[in-house]
Design goal:
- The chain is an alpha/beta fold.
- It has helices at 5-12, 19-22, 55-63, 88-95, 108-111, 114-123, 147-166, 187-198, 275-278, 300-307, 320-328, 339-343; strands spanning 44-47, 70-73, 139-143, 174-178, 206-208, 211-213, 218-221, 235-242, 247-252, 255-260, 267-269, 272-274, 283-290, 310-318.
- The relative contact order is 0.16.
Amino acid sequence: MRADGARRQARTGLEAKTIHRLLETDPKTGGFRRDDANPLACDLLVVDETSMVDVPLMRSLLRALPEAAALLIVGDVDQLPSVGPGQVLGGIIGSGAVAVVRLTEVFRQAADSRVIVNAHRINRGQMPELEQTGAKSDFYFIDAAEPEDGVQKLLTIVRDRIPKAFGLDPVRDIQVLCPMNRGGLGARSLNVELQKALNPPGDVRVDRFGWTFCPGDKVMQVENDYDREVYNGDLGIISRINMEESELVVIFDGRDVTYGFGELDELVLAYATTIHKSQGSEYPAVVIPVTTQHYTMLARNRLYTGVTRGKRLVVLIGQRKALAIAVRNQGARRRWSKLREWLS
């Protein structure tokens, strides 16, 4: 889907695109240039991270698929469902109308990773293994009884401990993922604190729409911008601010994108973001606050989605009670969809 196209391209030797770019978004209409009258030129289409695909986007994709082409969809049905309407992947799998292969075995080369082992445990409704053996691990739990304590420990871990122990850049390589936006350990408050710790605002700064933007800040696009070809959830780094021209430039995947100061409502700071916004992405390291402050958003699929975003390291900070609540709570409210019945 949206993120890690370069990684997939390197592994397959084939060009990887987002669905929006593949279908050639038309900025004038908000629709797509590729459809049944102008189909894609392919014999096989592979769609990754299909749990993120909602009903309207899947409809557009299938309309543009040539009749003779095959479709292979890949995704994790246990992750959070799409932000948009429907539950496309779950409906397709549940219908029994198409062949389904489930990958469930943890192979020997992956069994040494506590991230992978604990992700499987969480998905089965079991508590992750939290005790450390003394050797360097890729999965840690840090106790923090109160939100204030959790904030300070989180800042220390992101700014100092992970970079020192793992050689990772605190801005580019470490992503804080929160169950929700609100609260002292929510994404909004943590963005302010992380900005102070990692990239303190200087004289060159822009204050707009409740945020302070500075060169070097990590930011996220929060709505689809078809003219700029930047989409909801894309991450970038502010490279420069031109006060005379009232413009700000963000680097997205090696490409400069310019915003007028009046257009900065499309951006938010992204040192921390919600787990839902991270879906489809991977990061070298993720840090996840898990606290009873987030009680209403503690659910197994949310925690599982967050943990599986980490490639090299996952750190949970908070209360074991909150972790147990999340693991036990299957919690996903049912989405009423007829796709499963229609397909079967």
